[in-house]
Amino acid sequence: MQKFAVLVLVGVFGGCGGGGPSEPKLTIGQVCLQVADALCERMVQCGQIGPGDYDGCTGATVGGCCSQNGICAQGSPVTQSQFMPCVNAFASEQCGAVALGTIPATCQILD
């Protein structure tokens, strides 16, 4: 789980996105939580974890994503509207790709 979250963050935070001037940037913690939610939900749908393991999955993913001191409170370069295509892509990601920790293509374009 942690490897996947770190890979997503490398892709997301490597870029400089420009949303509308009034749209606030997400914090790294918000990005981590949204990735964890989408990833773990897809893992349940794919039968890779049981529904009862969802909370543990999201906790482990966010924990790995926010493992550096204070990083979750820091700002990211993306807004919600810029990041939603990445989050939404997990729902249609192939189960085999999810099991391998493959990042959806829409997340990769953010770097």
Oligomerization state: single chain
Share in helix: 55-70%
Largest sheet composition: 2 strands, antiparallel
Instruction: Give the N-to-C terminal Cα separation.
Output: 20 Å
* Number of alpha- plus pi-helical segments: 6
Mean pLDDT: 82
How does the helix and strand content classify structurally?
Answer: mainly alpha
Low-confidence residue ranges: 1-19
Number of strands: 2
Query: What form results from the Cα inertia axes?
Result: globular
Radius of gyration: 13 Å
Q: How are strands sequenced across the largest beta sheet?
A: 1-2
What amount of the residues lies in strands?
A: 5-15%
What order do the SSEs take from the amino end to the carboxyl end, as H and E?
A: HEHHEHHH
Can you characterise this structure?
It is a single chain. By secondary structure, the chain is mainly α. Helix content is 56%, strand content 7%. It has 6 helices and 2 strands, in the order αβααβααα. It has helices at residues 2-13, 28-45, 54-65, 80-89, 95-100, 105-108, and strands at residues 25-27, 75-79. The two termini are 20 Å apart. The relative contact order is 0.26.
